[in-house]
Structure formats: structure tokens, C-alpha cells
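Please produce the structure of this protein holding 4-O-methyl-beta-D-glucopyranuronic acid.
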Amino acid sequence: VHPAWLPPEAFRALGSRRTVVQGTGLLVETVRQEVADAAARYGGSLRQPTTGADEPTEPDDLVLALTTGATVPAGAAAVLAELAAQTGQLGADGFALARRAGVTVVLADAAPGLLYGLFEVVRRGEAAFGAGFPVERHRPAMRLRMLNHWDNVTVDPVMGQVERGYSGGSIFWRDGALTPELSRVRAYGRLLAASGVNAVTVNNVNVHAVEARLLTDRLGDVAAIADELRPYGIRVHLSITFAAPVTLGGLPTADPLDEHVRAWWAKTTRQVYDTIPDFGGFVVKADSEGQPGPFGYGRSHADGANVLAEAVAPFGGAVHWRAFVYNHRQDWRDRSTDRARAAYDHFAPLDGQFRDNVILQVKYGPIDFQVREPISPVIAAMPATRLAVELQVTQEYTGQQRHVCYLGPLWSEVLGFGPWGADGPSVADVAAGRTADVAGPPVGGGGLAAVSSVGDDPFWTGHPLAQANLYAFGRFAWNPRLDPLAILDEWIDLTFVPTATGDPDRLRRTLHAIMDDSWRTYERYTAPLGVGFMVRPGHHYGPDVDGYEYTPWGTYHFADRDGVGVDRTRATGTGFTGQYPAPWSQVYESLDQCPDELLLFFHHVPYGHVLHSGSTVIQHIYDTHFAGVEQVTESRRRWAEIVDLVDPAVAARVGERLDEQVRSATEWRDQLNTYFFRKSGVPDAHGRRIH
Ligand code: GCW
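Below is the modeled complex.
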């Protein structure tokens, strides 16, 4: 299995030093083991801590210590003194890092912080042991940093084992049972911890019959996974079906207000915590795409979420209730229904009705993980509810890990976006719970969640370069303000540079050239100007402009001979723009002010409409599609120039996927350009070949 961003070489700087680790407990032992392994490989040492008097004759290079001990090793004393007033304020996951008088010091109030501090030292490599630097305090912005696996225990004949999975089978489940390869689960936990993730769900949000039983008679399997992930500070969560009281409990109803249903959830949950004391909680997809939910009993989603929240509350658990609820059986002739409106219409009226251990998990956009969407208006509409923002690391709509598409810049834009304008709180602030300056009582944030891209593929993510997205997710959940290109640099330096043969600068430069702008490149050759979809129905790979146009799924572009786009204005359209607060309700409503990249999401315009860029819509479509393919072709060429610097297996896999990306992008270009040329009759201003 590929080591991803933790090749042994990434531990060289740390492993060649003298280190002491002070503290006790499971995660401190993990830190010790990491240091011991690295030291054994690179000639350093791990010293056992002693008490005050017999400090070592040779000073330590690195001290990792908990602030809660009676003393800290000598080298850390000055740093501890400086921190003094702030000890106890680093939080469970936070740490302080400094280098002074030739000693690098990591101090944490609790063991998880020590582990994150260790991985920060790894990330910095030699720089952690170079020039001194003053005390830095590190705390994650999000308390919950969660990956959702859409893994099934059994293999679905249509979807395969992992729904929207592009990396082989599940790393948790095999042949209907728990995987025999638990070491792989542990290695996964280690990678996640090194990126900052602290929670995982082990099964699909679409909960099928076998998977439902993970809650009850198959709970032992979940416990076994939890045992592997626990040493890396990762708590396990389960996706459950709302119908469980009926399907598993044999009750006549799953009505959340029924006393027997409440009692069943309470009893069942107690058993879960008896087996897995640090169990994180439930993730629920209800009344969505055929999953059962409270609507079936005439109850609200607050009723539904609260009965589960009540069951996990005594144990400190949380319920992640997804806001992805819409009518997937819409009549395409019905112009009054707008899928973009659905989450807000369902959930905004419920603000304030959820128990405080309910986290409403909202996809970042109002539709479905498209390459370009405005942010979901739900994010700005529920000040009295804990919200988590959901991203999609698995590239369902962004090339399915056959295309290079580094999503860091997309996520950075989403997280940094100010729903109340540039000066107000950002999307990340809402997820982190820092919305006190917005009307309503301040509530804790729900954190960041994302659909995992990992499978049992030797490269974890199918496309080796797609590992960068997984890494970036954890880093953003820790600090949403990080520069996406700096994250990419970290990932390159951890993953590739230590094992590169030859010129690491050339490797770094070329990977940046291929990846930096790859999200926008993908946007260029696929659906234009925020209109979305245009993918093949079902598997969602490759172009099919009208594939969803006359289906019940609510994802339409309305192209005709005169123009294209969805009128979501209040004036003449579905009124969706009214779900945003100012200034966006106005900006999006206005044809003049609406940003180009979202124009067709909000407006239906003629092909000759002139964008802010100065181009017409039709010419923009032609230009971006030609440019997108050129960029992909260029990336293919660049990769060929650096294959000598990387592992041959990686070189071969990436090369083969880039070939497919060139083919697929060309297909997208030709279908899109031809489609719009035939609809509009407007020729390309530059006379390029359109079929
Ligand atoms: O993007 C859509 C996917 C479904 C998925 C759903 C969801 C798990 O096509 O496969 O179901 O979103 O987020 O629930």
C-alpha cells in the first residue's frame, strides 16, 4: 500500500534527533511509538522521562510533553513558563510549539494535542530543528473534523461496494464481513490524524438491510474498527436508518414521538455505548432519495433528529442530521418546484427547535457538489442551530478520480465566503460556531464533514494525485484560512519530495503546474457558468447535456434556441435568490451584478448576453472548452517530463489517468460546443472546429 503523505522518509528529521515524550495514556503511547519507530530507522533516540533531578547529560532535541504532569523535562521549562497563564486553554486538540536554546518543544493540555503536535513537527521536517522561533499556539478551528464513508458491507450490483467510490472496494468491509485487513484501517487512521481528521463514519448514509444491523447484532464489527482508529484519536460514528425501530426492533412504527420508539432508541443506544464507550454518534439521511424519515409519520425533522439526540445525549454523543432533503420525483414540466430551494424550505423554519447535540449537516451548495455552486442559503439561515458544512472529497462530479482536480481552491472559496457580505462571519465561522455577531443566541459549531474518497486501492484514492484532496480536507477542517496552494506544497513535500530521485524543485514546480488550477480547468471543459450537471445519468461520468433535462431529479439547464440557464430570481423565476440575506439576495437577483461564474445558476439569458468578462455567453462556452482541453493536454505533457523523478507505479497510474482525462475532456468539449452551436446557430468567433 502506498504510504501517501507519511512515507518513512518524512520522519527523517525527527527520527535522527534525541526525543523525550512525557505523559501517559493511549494517545501518548501512540506518540511514543511513532518516535521510537522513526528513531530506530534514522539513528535518533527516544528517552524515557525522569523526574526533575536526573535530567540527561545530553540535552534533548525535541520534547513532547503534557502540561498536566508534575514537571516537564528541563528543555521545555522555559516554554511552559511562558505559556503558564494559558495552560489549560489549548483545548483537547491544541498544542503549543516553540524552538528555543536548541530545543524544539511541543506542549499540550491533553493527549490528542500531543499527537497533532507530533505531526506538525513531521510536517516541518528539518525546519522544526533549525532556527529558533517563539511560542506558537495551534488549535483547530473545527471541533469535529469528520469523514463520511459511503461504504456498504455488501457489494451492490449497480453501485459497487462504495457508493460514488472510485478507489476500489471498502477498507472496512469485505465479502459481507469486517475486513480481515485491520492493519489497513489503522494505517488509514494514522494518515487521517496526520491531516487533522478526528471522526469517521464507517457506512453509507443510504443504509441498506445488512448495514442497518451494524447498530445492533453487527455492532462488534464497528467496535473492532473503533479499536483500530482510537490510538489515532479518531472516533467512530454510524449511519443509521430512521426505520430501525421497525426493521430491527420489530415495532409497528418508527414515529419519533411514540414512547416505545423513544425507549427503543434509548436502549439500543445504551448498548452501543456499552460496547464502544467513545462512540461519536449517528449520521442520518432521512426523507431523502428514498430513505425513510419523520415525514412518513407526519412529524418534522426536528422531531426526528431530537429523538436520536436524546438517546445519545447521556453519553456525550451527537446526531449529524443531513439537510439534503428534496423531491427527487419532480415532474420536469413543473416549473414551480426548484430543487435549490428545498433544503432551506424544509429546515430554516425549524431553527431553534433542535436539541443542542443535533448538528445539521449541510452540503456546501444548494444542489449537489457541483464544480460551481453558490453556497447553500441554509448556512446563513439558522443562527440557533449547530451547522456542519459537508464537502465531497470523492470526486463524484469532479472527474471521479480519473481527472486531476485539486479541490483545495474550491473549498477555500466556500469556507472563506461571507454569507452576510465580505465583512461578516464566513461559512467557516458558522461551521466553527463563531457567529455571535449574527442575530440569535451563539451556538457551538458543528464542524466540517466530507464524503471520503478512500477505498482498498493501493494508492488509497485511485488517482495518486487525488490524495491531495483528502489531505487538504483535514488541513482545512483544522484551519480553514490556510492557503490551498500552501497545503498543496505541504502535501507534495511530504508525499513526493522525500522519495524523489533527482531535482525536487522541478518535481514541485511541475506538480503545481498540473494541480494548482486543475479545479478551474475542470470547470472550463464541463458545464458552464454554474449551470451544473450535464453528466451522464446514473454514474455521473462524462458529458450528456440533456441527460437529466427531462428526468425527475430537478437538475435542469433549460437551454433552447435563444438562451440557457435557470431563472431563480424573485422577479420572474423560482424566488430562490430570496433565501439569501443581503447583500447576496440583491447581487444574485441582479443580472448586472451576478458574478459571471454563477450567471446560469441564477438567470436564464440569451446566448448573446455579454458577461463582465466582455465575452458573450456562447463565445465563453466555446473559449473555455477549447482552453480546458489545451490545459489538460499540457498537463499530460508536463507529467511525461517528470516521470523519471517518481516511483514507476505512481508514474504509470497517473499517466494512464491523464490519458483518460485528455480523452474525456475532449469528449466534453466536443459535445458541449456542438450542442450549443446547434441550439444557437452562432459560430465560433475564431472559426475553430465545431462538429
Ligand atoms: O450526490 C448524490 C449522490 C448519491 C448520494 C447523495 C447523498 C449517498 O449521487 O449517491 O447518496 O448525493 O448525498 O445522499
